[in-house]
Design brief:
Strand content: 15-25%
Number of strands: 15
Shape: globular
CATH architecture of the domain at 52-105 and 135-272: Sandwich
CATH topology of the domain at 52-105 and 135-272: Jelly Rolls
Oligomer: single chain
Radius of gyration: 18 Å
Low-confidence stretches: none
Number of helices: 8
Length: 283
Amino acid sequence: MGSDVIDGVVRTDRYPLDEPGSPAWSAVVDRARRELRAVGATVLRDVVRPDLAERLRAESDAVAPAAHTATAQVNVYNTDPDPTLPARHPARVALTRRNAFVARDRIPADHLVQRLYEHPGFRALLAACFELDEVHPLADPYSGLTLNVVAPGDDHPWHFDTNEIAVSLLTREPEAGGTFEYCPGIRAPSEENLAGVRAVLDGDCGPVRSLALRPGDLQLFRGRFALHRVTPVAGASPRHTAIFAYSDRPGVVGSPARTRQLFGRVDPLHLAAASVRSDTLLD
């Protein structure tokens, strides 16, 4: 995918994806790294050209009906219930998931978010921001790129991501509510911090931060290690967010159980492939 294509989507005056190391590129990377280190997240404002905001919204509206919308009782790890765990274990806290996901195979190839997802310059910028040599699109045919749909009155409860690197693009802003909240670094590759996670579930707001997002803004954070949620959406309009899932290693595929939770179906790839993880954390 060449620069002529990305020039039509991204504000390349501010985010010169084909000019790594240039002053503008370095300024974006330096700020993102500082904020990711300090507060666990950063927002790249107006990555998508503002004149494309209506197209972003229309494209997400077009695929939103394909979202898997079943309400489910889940926990923050999206693991199967385990009554043998201690009573205070965070996985014993049941949460109602009322949001919905459109899988990647339901998003047309010419949509703006599909054009961004695997673009080499886009991925190179993200890798630099996360201080990685490279980021890899997920091998998962459903969860690599998704549209998260939160209808009025619904929310996306506290959870951790399967993938280490979380990148999202707001495509439809709700009238009210729908705030993104997160607890940066509440767990680490070698430490679940069960007590800290349980404290947040019990109402401790001390570790909780929030981000204000606008359509076209790109949000970066480490979703595998940051407990996060979207608060209830208010008003008449839903909240739509394109979620770009990457890993620092190739071959990551979601588990069959979690895939069925999110999309209501599994691909033979989910049944045949072992998920690639860099840690032994609960999912």
